[in-house]
Amino acid sequence: MRKTMLLAMSALVVFGSCSGNSSNSSSSATGSNSSGGAEHSEDEKANIVLAKVGDYEITAEAVSYHMEGSAGPDRVEAGMQSPDQLQMATTGLMDQFVWAKKAEQAGYKLTKSEQARVEALRSELLATRYVGDVVQYKADPTREEVEEFYKSNQTRFFLPA
């Protein structure tokens, strides 16, 4: 299993470094370069499965989030490009899933306080996505709408003498 994880992590590092060079070639999921290869979106890159622990799939996005929590947001990009740091973060996340599974098997449950934290995070994530998809979309006026607003509210745009 560790060999499979290392191969997946190496593929991710190679895949990530190849994605930055889009002028000469593009990379495919197999890692081969060809001028007709398909570009992968950020979502596809984030959803690459690096390892499996039982039923859990550990994705590049999950490892990135784990790195952000432990090393800080300013070190994530460099960490995702370093095979050693990527392996350490993936292994740490795998250990976390294994220990959580053992805790569940032993009968551990989240306390009310922990459940409240989980619910608060769930609400934050959903609200952020909703605002980004719905509210932000509506808050992006067309040029015509801006001009119409300006014309109908010109008195608000005068500078004091």
TrEMBL record:
Low complexity composition bias: residue spans: 21-37
Organism domain of life: Bacteria
InterPro entries from the UniProt entry: Trigger_fact/SurA_dom_sf
Keywords in alphabetical order: Signal
Signal sequence, start to end: 1-19
Region feature (Disordered): 21-43
Protein name listed in UniProt: Peptidylprolyl isomerase
